[in-house]
Design brief:
heterodimer; A: alpha+beta; Alpha-Beta Plaits; two-stranded antiparallel ribbon; 9 helices; globular; B: Formate dehydrogenase/DMSO reductase fold; 20 helices
């Protein structure tokens, strides 16, 4: 079930402008401390096992009732496709997950599955002004299309460029992204369709905390095979989906400059000033007004005198 | 219009018809709307103006495209994509129009809070500029939103209280109403309901202070929106700590220069509508505004440098992006600063005006850089669809038409002549000067508004 998140609680306490800013400030203090729900689920993706069969793409397509793709799922030519600016394929309104091929220097090609990483502290969620996103207790980041206004701030905010928008729809455009098969599977404790479909057991579904241990064990057992890093353990505050790889992550299309702080931490400097401005400005500027007005004549003379001086300079 | 004024026809500037001295008939609403001309005369002057033909041409091309955007969806008109969710509508329409509309709260503060009533001739113009700028920023936003009919959702349906955009939505909405109230005093005078105007005058200080609060926060919030995208905006245009101050601070010269720019255009194109109080004071006020703008610009330049030092971004300055950044700062900040300094010292209002236009260009370039050009700098460069450009131009043309419509009618550039005694006085004046101004100046100095 959807947990009563702090945000819901805070939203409920909203009562006009002043209350808004108070909640904003509380949010700012609390945001960085959240490390995910204790029983949040995740998936560990071991890229060393992936052979690029794209069964996961097919399974996702079927599970989410997406339209059939232009090229069939067993067509390997898609790996050579490049979009705008030489970009590899990405998720869009018709594909919530894609597999891309990377060729790290001096190594065999590596296939990388890509979908929403289901962050612990999702940037999409914190940037959404109608609270359309929810981080469920089970670990999924889901989206409510009924309230979405279509500002696309979540797409700006997502550090992994995951959310896609159905731009071609005129009357009901919505965000399209992986929801961890929440409605049909995760809610009932079942792994998502892609995990189940994989013939290579690339993906391990489980409690996020345990997945980290499994990943650490694998690295320890085969130090030559893996790079000593679990991508997603700490990136942007930690993600539900995590990755192991045999080549350095920056050669596999991962952004390795994201840092450990959740995206919302960048915004806190501003959010912290909001209640201060609201509290201080009224007195400050009314005070200025009173100072300027109290001795109307003297004040007016003085200021016009100054103005003249300025002009003469 | 000029021709009619010379013939002594038209230009409503008081509740009473000047021509009928004896009866003192009031203008009817239709007559006010037609500026005291007959419908035929009005149409003829409109058709004579070549600028109207240009506008007409823009509308013929642009309006169908706007309809197409709503009928066929965003992908019909824009290059907005999954990588580049925001395009020109927001980069220009929202992120540029809003700082250019800081004029309202700047001049409101100067006059109402600091009591500098010598700025009064341009106060209403600044307020109107603010109101229309915000209003049309919202229009641009509506064109860009996927489901614009849901715009009130963050107010009434679902609250994302942690989001910066939530603050922007609330503050822009509240500030729009504040500005409507501020400008409404001119409307009440025009429509002939002095009670309303008096009421607004009473709450002017309150309105202005709330205007400052709301402006500080949402001008800053527009900058803070980009702190959600730390890896996507080029470091030279990004600062987690200072982004909101950059946006707020640069809005100050932007707003002031917009007043200079608009008053320049107004003086050139509709001098008939301005009273002597406006025209005679304009040069001095232009220089005074430029002083304020210089303060804003030098502060902005300083904090930009601090921003680079704080995040240690010096190395980026030698790259291509760095040169582009330096060009933006040189053309949009340093050069105007130099020109302002020279022009203020030598009292050259026209040079000030040129520098003001340059500053506006600089701010616009900064916002478009942040939102579009330096955005996704690691990916690829997005070029807006030509339809996106045409629609942006069309909305701007609608903005100009609305702006002009209001300036022609409401007492923004001239003072509304209330007292019947003064109205007759001005009739006699009108014989000598088509504008009937000296009496006005007198009246102006008497009333302390």
């Amino acid at each position: 079930m959807k947990g009563i998140s702090r945000r819901r609680f805070l939203a409920a306490s909203l009562a006009g402008g002043a209350a808004t800013t108070l909640t904003l400030s509380k949010q700012a203090i609390g945001a960085g401390a959240f490390e995910g729900y204790p029983d949040g689920m995740g998936v560990l993706v071991d890229l060393t096992r992936c052979v690029g069969c794209r069964s996961c793409e097919a399974a996702c397509n079927k599970e989410q009732n997406l339209p059939a793709p232009a090229a069939p799922f067993d067509d390997p030519s898609v790996f050579d496709q490049t979009g705008h600016g030489g970009q590899k394929r990405r998720t869009d309104e018709n594909a919530y997950t894609v597999v891309n091929r990377y060729e790290p220097e001096g190594q065999e090609p590596v296939y990388r599955k890509f979908q929403c990483n289901h962050c612990n502290e999702p940037a999409c969620l914190t940037s959404c002004f109608v609270n359309a996103y929810t981080k469920t207790r089970e670990g999924a980041v889901i989206y409510n299309s009924k309230v979405c206004v279509g500002c696309r701030n979540c797409m700006i905010a997502c550090p992994f460029q995951v959310p896609a928008y159905s731009y071609s729809s005129a009357f009901d455009p919505v965000i399209k992204k992986c929801i961890f098969c929440y409605d049909t599977r995760l809610k009932y404790g079942k792994p998502p369709a892609c995990v189940e479909s994989c013939p290579q057991e690339v993906m391990t579904f489980g409690y996020r905390k345990e997945l980290i241990k499994i990943a650490q064990d694998r690295i320890k057992a085969r130090p030559g095979k893996y790079v000593d890093h679990i991508y997603g353990e700490n990136e942007v505050g930690g993600t539900g989906w995590m990755y192991l790889a045999g080549a350095s992550f920056d050669q596999l299309g991962f952004d390795t400059d994201l840092g450990k702080e959740p995206i919302i931490s960048n915004v806190k400097d501003f959010l912290g000033t909001v209640p201060m401005v609201l509290a201080i400005w009224p007195a400050l500027f009314t005070g200025f007004h009173l100072l300027a007005k109290k001795k109307d004549h003297a004040g007016a003379d003085h200021s016009s005198h100054n103005a003249q001086e300025d002009a003469e300079q | 219009m000029k021709t009619y004024i010379e013939q002594g026809i038209g230009a409503v500037d008081s509740p009473y018809k000047d021509k009928d001295k004896a009866e003192k008939r009031s203008w009817s609403l239709v007559e006010k709307l037609l500026l005291g001309l007959t419908a035929g005369q009005y149409l003829r002057q409109a058709l004579r103006n070549p600028f109207n033909w240009i506008l007409g041409l823009i509308f013929i091309v642009g309006l169908p495209l706007i309809a197409g955007r709503f009928w066929f969806g965003l992908s019909f008109a824009t290059h907005s994509s999954n990588d580049y969710p925001w395009g020109l509508f927001l980069a220009f329409g929202l992120f540029t129009m809003v700082p250019l509309s800081a004029s309202g709260f700047m001049l409101g503060t100067t006059v109402e809070i600091f009591g500098r009533h010598d700025f009064q001739p341009v106060e209403r113009l600044a307020l109107l500029n603010g109101l229309l700028g915000y209003f049309f920023a919202v229009v641009y936003l509506l064109v860009d939103l996927g489901q614009p009919w849901r715009l009130p959702y963050p107010m009434f349906v679902s609250f994302g209280t942690a989001a910066v955009l939530f603050l922007v939505a609330w503050h822009v909405a509240t500030y729009l109403s504040v500005q409507v109230a501020e400008v409404s005093s001119a409307f009440f005078e025009w429509i002939g309901w002095p009670m309303g105007a008096q009421f607004i005058r009473k709450i002017a200080v309150g309105l202005t202070v709330s205007g400052i609060i709301l402006s500080t926060l949402h001008q800053g919030a527009l900058g803070a929106l980009f702190t959600y995208a730390p890896g996507k905006v080029h470091p030279l245009w990004y600062s987690a700590s200072f982004q909101w101050i950059f946006f707020f601070c640069s809005a100050i010269p932007a707003g002031l220069c917009m007043v200079i720019a608009v008053s320049t255009v107004v003086k050139k194109t509709m001098a008939w509508r301005c009273d002597r109080n406006f025209l005679d004071n304009l040069d001095n006020l232009t220089i005074a505004l430029a002083k304020g703008a210089s303060m804003g610009l030098i502060t902005y330049l300083t904090i930009k440098l601090i921003g680079i030092a704080h995040d240690n971004e010096w190395a980026y300055l030698t790259t291509g992006w760095g040169q582009w950044f330096l060009l933006e700062m040189a053309l949009g900040v340093v050069l105007p600063l130099g020109l302002f300094a020279y022009a203020i010292r030598h009292r050259m209002p026209n040079l000030v005006r040129g520098a003001a236009f340059l500053t506006i260009f600089g701010i616009a370039l900064n916002r478009i850089n942040t939102a579009l050009i330096a955005f996704n700098w690691k990916l690829y460069q997005e070029i807006p669809h030509w339809k996106e450009v045409v629609i942006s131009v069309t909305i701007f043309a609608i903005y100009i038409v609305t702006y002009r419509f209001i300036l022609y009618r409401l007492p923004i550039l001239f003072t509304w002549k209330e007292a019947p005694a003064l109205a007759t006085e001005t009739v006699t004046e009108k014989a000598t000067s088509s504008l009937g101004a000296p009496a006005l100046v007198e009246m102006y100095s008497k009333s302390d508004r």
